[in-house]
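Let us practice reading a record.
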Amino acid sequence: MTVPVGLEQLRSEAAKYGDTPYLLTVSDDGRPHAVSVRLTWDHGDLRLSGGVRSRSNASTRPDVTLLWPAIEDGGFSLILDGTASVSGEQIAIRPVSAVLHRSLAASPNRAAGSECRPVLSPEPGI
């Protein structure tokens, strides 16, 4: 069961991880492109300066992901999926969904698999 969670909880969780996640976009040939970025909040959007390749990828394929790695060994990563828009050298990302995720295989005495906790659920119809 998915539990809807709001933007304020997402902001609170993201603050724990800092302002330098990885931005993941997809290139013309379908390969992933990952770069470290520094972002800020602008109302409900996240804003960052993007390089040439990131801006090009986000312009053509606006479904992007931000990934904050786990802070401690065995901890949760924060994964945010969003929709990007590009203006000049800036990329704005409107969050669509977000989860806290960790691999259970890395934990002692655990079977393979993962654990996800919703942080921001997509709006109905998305």
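A brief commentary: The chain has one domain: 7-120.
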